[in-house]
């Protein structure tokens, strides 16, 4: 995968996280506003204050946990990409300084890309497993 594809994927995951945050805020407001109105007699301020307290439901807790998992996945993915770019720069420097030849460079680059893909796949599998079990 090239850097553009990875950046696009990270952007897409960021949009999903933002959408989840907006939906969470929307449903919290909707739940709080559901009990208002209806021609009920006025209550004392203390009872009215108790009525508006919010206790998170299991869905909200699961949504928050999923959001945290996605954010940590994005951080881990960007960390992997930065380390791979750093290693590729090091390989390029070795090639330019003639410390390794072109064939060795290609082999080392392929090994580096395969190792990075394996780490990325492991992280993705773990994220899918955790989100499916919530």
Uncertain segments: none
Strand-pairing-aware structural class: mainly alpha
Q: In the residues, how many domains can be counted?
A: 1
Q: Say what oligomer this is.
A: single chain
pLDDT averaged over residues? 77
Beta strand %: under 5%
**Fraction of residues in H or I helices:** over 70%
Order of helices and strands: HHHH
How many DSSP-defined strands? 0
The value of Rg in angstroms is 24 Å
Distance between the termini: 30 Å
Shape: elongated
Largest sheet: none
Number of helices: 4
What does the secondary structure layout of this molecule look like, with pairings?
Layout: H1 3-34, H2 45-51, H3 58-96, H4 102-132
Helix pairs in contact: 1-3, 3-4
Characterise the protein shown here:
The protein is mainly alpha-helical and 134 residues long. The protein has helices at residues 3-34, 45-51, 58-96, 102-132. The protein is elongated. The model has no long low-confidence stretch (mean pLDDT 77).
Quick tags:
134 residues; mainly alpha
Outline of the structure:
The protein has 134 residues and is mainly alpha-helical. The chain has 4 helices and no strands.
């Amino acid at each position: 995968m090239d850097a553009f594809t990875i950046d696009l994927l990270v952007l897409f995951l960021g949009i999903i996280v933002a959408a989840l945050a907006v939906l969470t805020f929307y449903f919290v407001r909707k739940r709080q506003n559901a009990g208002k109105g209806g021609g009920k007699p006025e209550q004392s301020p203390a009872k009215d204050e108790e009525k508006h307290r919010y206790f998170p439901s299991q869905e909200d807790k699961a949504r928050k946990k999923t959001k945290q998992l996605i954010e940590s996945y994005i951080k881990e993915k960007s960390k992997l990409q930065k380390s791979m770019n750093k290693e590729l720069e090091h390989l390029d420097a070795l090639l330019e300084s003639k410390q390794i030849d072109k064939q060795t460079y290609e082999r080392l680059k392929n090994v580096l890309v395969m190792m990075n893909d394996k780490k990325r796949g492991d992280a993705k599998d773990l994220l899918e497993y955790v989100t499916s079990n919530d």
